[in-house]
Amino acid sequence: MATYVVPRPNLTWKEKMYLPAIVAGMMITIKHLKRMLMGETKVVMQYPEEKWDSHMPEHYRGAPTLVTDDHGRERCVACQLCEFICPPRAITIIPEEIPTESKFAKVEKRPKEFEIDMIRCIYCGLCEEVCPEQAIFLRKDYAITGTTRAEMKHDKAKLYELGGVMDGLVHKWNPKK
């Protein structure tokens, strides 16, 4: 089998010097400089006083949290689908059975332990998509910080603290955060 040779075009001396590309790049830079000097664009945001919260796009995916229903019950039934689908394996769930004498024994299981390692989480949103009970949601928060690795592992209590309340099909964010 013979190889196929693709002929290269002959470049002019201007193209060999990359002159048109350099001029086009400089024109873009000058246009941005002009807009900045005229006050048409804002260059610097004074963080943390100013935040992007009001300008967050609808499709933004932030940190995953757990939500409760409007009666304060856990929505998670420990099906472990989010744990199985998580690409970096950031979610760990240990299920337990709900005692039959409990008045909230509407399901067979609940999470005894639920932990998300925020250092490993890639904020892909697969956990939210796969959850059959709509128990896990991605917050519109981009400032998740901690001084130690242990602070970046969110346990069940922390996830419920950060999450909100799921009232029917409407998610209400936690007003504390």
Your description of this structure?
- The mean pLDDT is 85.
- Helix content is 23%, strand content 18%.
- The N and C termini lie far apart (66 Å).
- The strands form 3 sheets. The protein has a 3-stranded mixed beta sheet, with no helix packed on it. A 3-stranded antiparallel beta sheet has the order 3-4-6.
- The protein is an alpha+beta fold and 177 residues long.
Helix content: 10-25%
Number of beta-strand segments:
8
Strand content: 15-25%
Sum up the overall morphology in one term: elongated
Mean pLDDT, to the nearest integer, reads: 85
Task: Considering the chains and any ligands shown, give keywords for the structure.
177 residues, alpha+beta, 3-stranded antiparallel beta sheet, 18% strand
